[in-house]
Every structure is written in C-alpha cells, then in structure tokens.
Amino acid sequence: MAITPPSERLWWNEPASKTELIWIVIAFLWGLVMFFMMIYWHGAGKQNLSNEAYRTTPVRYARKSQAMIDAYTVRQENNYPVVHPPPGSDVYLTARLWQWWPILEFEKGQSYRLHLSSMDWQHGFSLQPVNINIQVHPGYEMVVTMQPDQAGEYGIVCNEYCGIGHHTMVGRIYVVE
Ligand code: CUA
User: How many domains does the chain have?
Assistant: First the structure.
C-alpha cells in the first residue's frame, strides 16, 4: 500500500514501466520452469516421499500410539515418555498442538517403520539436522521406513504454520549405539 494515493485516478490504466514488465516476464518464466521441475523431481532427485499412507482417525491413531508408549517407555524426560521400541517394529509419532509425542529412541543401524499422523491440524515433520521433511495431516497415517546411520540427538521442528504455538512445536529422536 502506498503512503500517498496515485496522482492519476485511472492508475490501473497506465502503461506498465519497462522494469515492471521485465520482472513479470522473469517471474512467469521461473514459474514455468518450476512447474516442469515439479514433474521432473518426481522421477529424479533423492526424494523422501512417503509411498505408504492410510486413512485413519485421530482416535484410532492415538490408541495405537498409546499402546506403543505403554509397552516400550524406558524413562521420562520433562513429562515426555521416552520410548525405545524394538528394532523393525512399527513406531507411532503423533503431531498435535503443539507437540511431537512421544520422544523416540532408536538403535543405530536398525530399521523402523515410522508412522506419522496429526490429532488436529496440518503439521510439518522436519528432522534436523538431516533435513527430512514430510507433511503430517489429520485423518492420514504416513509410513516412512527409517534406518538411522548415525548415533546422536535429532530435533524435530514443525515446518507448517499451525497457530500461536507453532514455534514451540519441537520434538526429539535419540539414536543410540
Ligand atoms: Cu505444528 Cu507448526
């Protein structure tokens, strides 16, 4: 919004300046490039799209997650259960306003089927610092097979804006030797 109104009342009818036209052309061409890259990236490039997804409900998903927490919690950290599921098992991470629940502990070199779903709104699973990103939706259960190859502490941040507490929505995954 300009501070002062345009001098001409019919401002929208003025010819566009050369600079503006150049930028419109650049933006349009870049949009076209990205449109075709979007198709290209489906086949090429190292994508980590989930190719396994199921319909679920928050209640059904929460039940499975709770069963895993009840069976494999090894300790508590700041009122979060730390869950150490058996290698090769199905692991349920829950996104909700504004938490990743629970904290998970994996063993290095072992493979896990990580399930992701949301209890409320759309969230974004972003694993740091390795930068693995997956959208998390309510009503859908995404399954990603993970095999951590390095021990350490990983952070999960939410990368889809989900309201006032979005920036506090952080979680943790431990990978132990
Ligand atoms: Cu959850 Cu942003």
Answer: 2
- Sheet containing 170-176: order of strands: 73-77, 80-83, 103-107, 170-176, 152-158, 123-128, 132-136
Residue 163 lies in a domain: yes
Cα of 161 from ligand 1 centre, angstroms: 5
Atom number of ligand 1 nearest to Cα 159: 2
pLDDT in tens, 17-30: 899 999 999 999 99
Residues within a 6 A CB radius of ligand 1: 98, 123, 158, 160-162, 166, 169
Q: Single out the residue in 44, 64, 83 at which a domain terminates.
A: 44
Amino acid in position 104: L
Tell how far the Cα of 51 is from the centroid of ligand 1, in angstroms.
23
Å from CA of 13 to ligand 1 middle: 43
CATH code for the domain in which residue 116 is found = 2.60.40.420
Q: Of ligand 1's atoms, which has the minimum distance to the CA of residue 161?
A: 2
Using CA atoms, how far apart are residues 22 and 18, in angstroms rounded to an integer? 6
pLDDT tens for each residue of 53-108 = 899 999 999 999 999 999 999 999 999 999 999 999 999 999 999 999 999 999 99
**Cα 7 to ligand 1 centroid, rounded to whole Å:** 44
Q: What is the pTM of this model?
A: 0.74
- Give the distance from CA 147 to its chain's centroid: 18
